[in-house]
Design goal:
Elements: H1 2-7, E1 14-15, H2 23-32, E2 35-36, H3 42-51, E3 76-79, E4 83-85, E5 103-105, H4 122-125, E6 134-137, H5 144-161, H6 169-179, E7 184-186, E8 206-208, E9 211-213, E10 222-224, H7 238-253
Parallel strand pairs: 1-2, 5-7
Antiparallel strand pairs: 3-6, 4-10, 5-6, 8-9
Helix pairs in contact: 3-5, 5-6
């Protein structure tokens, strides 16, 4: 959120609560001038329990990110909360094009989407697998109801191909976009000079004029601490994380 204030404060921000412990989320919305999304995600929670039942699957709440598709917006850019924004996101909007670019992602994800049985299904063989910590789309191309309808019709296929191991939203978002035939594009194919890189441990990253670039000199728009199990310390992006974290806590204490 602190990086949003620094780079994208001109864009409207919506905060979707992860669970019912919303005191800090509401406070953050007040501090950063964000819209707090207070509608109960009834349909999403029902879907998450149907797909991932049991007491050990509490992280099924990650599906609540799908509430971004129900916001009253022409286009939406979804970003996970464990992300630092480094550049203005304004150029990301207005790039969607029916039949050509209907869903924009930043980074491929080859290992954390499907298992080897994906090859049994022609619509998945050549599909672009992506990290779902960032995406841009419109409800013209993807609606919340599309998730319900797709799982109603193809839950058996989804469970056959999805990667296990505490993965919840990412296999589902990939599956629904692939099953519905959305035209998915990587960020570099949409914005000239943009990098597809966003992983917090990415090699070859350096900062130029205070902004990160990848090993080819292409502009990195954000860094994502996907799967991080320890606090940032010595990584190339970690100084920025520490700076923004300290600034954010200072605001909360005011």
């Amino acid at each position: 959120l602190e990086s949003y204030k620094d780079t994208n404060s001109g864009l409207p921000l919506y905060l979707i609560p992860y669970d019912d412990n919303v005191v800090m989320t509401r406070r953050a919305a007040e501090i950063y001038g964000a819209h707090y999304v207070g509608e109960e995600p009834t349909e999403i929670d029902k879907l998450s329990h149907e797909l991932y039942p049991g007491i050990f699957n509490t992280n099924r709440r990650r599906l609540r990110k799908l509430q971004a598709l129900a916001l009253p917006l022409d286009e939406v850019a979804y970003v996970d909360v464990d992300v630092i924004l480094f550049r203005d996101f304004t150029p990301l909007f207005g790039r969607l094009d029916k039949g050509k670019t209907e869903f924009i992602v930043a980074s491929p994800s080859f290992e954390y989407v499907y298992n080897d049985r994906r090859d049994h299904y022609p619509f998945l063989k050549d599909a672009l697998l992506f990290n779902d910590g960032f995406w841009v789309t419109s409800n013209q191309y993807l609606k919340l109801s599309d998730f319900m309808d797709t799982i109603r019709d193809d839950a058996v296929i989804f469970h056959d191909v999805r990667k296990r191991g505490q993965l919840f939203a990412q296999p589902l978002v990939n599956f629904v976009t692939h099953r519905r035939g959305l035209k998915i594009e990587l960020l570099p194919n949409v914005i000239a000079g943009a990098s597809h890189e966003s992983f917090y441990k990415a090699p070859g990253v350096e900062f130029k004029n205070g902004k990160p670039v990848d090993y080819e000199g292409k502009e990195i728009y954000f860094a994502h601490w996907a799967g991080a199990t320890a606090l940032p310390k010595n990584g190339v992006f970690d100084e920025a994380w520490t700076h923004y974290s300290q600034a954010a806590w200072a605001r909360f204490k005011q």
